[in-house]
Design goal:
Blueprint lengths: L10 H21 L24 E3 L5 E3 L2 E3 L2 H7 L2 H5 E6 L5 H14 L3 E4 L7
Helix pairs in contact: 2-4
Family: Belongs to the ExbD/TolR family.
Keywords: Cell membrane, Membrane, Protein transport, Transmembrane, Transmembrane helix, Transport
Protein name: Biopolymer transport protein ExbD/TolR
């Protein structure tokens, strides 16, 4: 005698998926709490950007300046720096400077004795 098996619906799998989605949304909500409604962010659109005083500035035409004074080349600049300043050298490139020139300058600074070359850029928020 054959018994008819009742076909079970996959409700357990559906409950598991809904439970996992619930946990995901709860975790996502706690990771990024909303900003306070009365908070106003600082506006920097009108600020004039200036390079830090201890950074090597590379202009669009390839000229180098340090603290407003012209620098002849990367090797001579690194040679004049104290040992602590050579560990991390800050570089501010012009946006119009070709990337190949920037890479070439970074390599020259490293060969001249700079431990780490850090590029200072403008950060924009969406």
């Amino acid at each position: 005698m054959k018994t008819d098996r009742t076909r079970r619906e996959p409700t357990i799998a559906l409950i598991n998926i809904i439970f996992l989605m619930l946990i995901f949304f709860m975790a996502a909500a706690t990771l990024a709490p909303p900003l306070a409604q009365d908070l106003r962010l600082v506006r920097t659109a009108e600020l004039e950007g200036t390079a830090p005083p201890d950074a090597l500035v590379v202009h669009a035409d390839g000229r180098l300046t340090y603290r407003g004074a012209p620098v002849s080349d990367a090797a001579s600049h690194v040679a004049t720096l104290p040992e602590t300043a050579r560990a991390t050298l800050r570089l501010v490139p012009d946006a119009a400077l070709p990337a190949t020139d920037l890479l070439r300058l970074g390599e020259a600074l490293r060969r001249a004795g700079a431990g780490r070359v850090v590029m200072i850029t403008e950060r924009g928020l969406p």
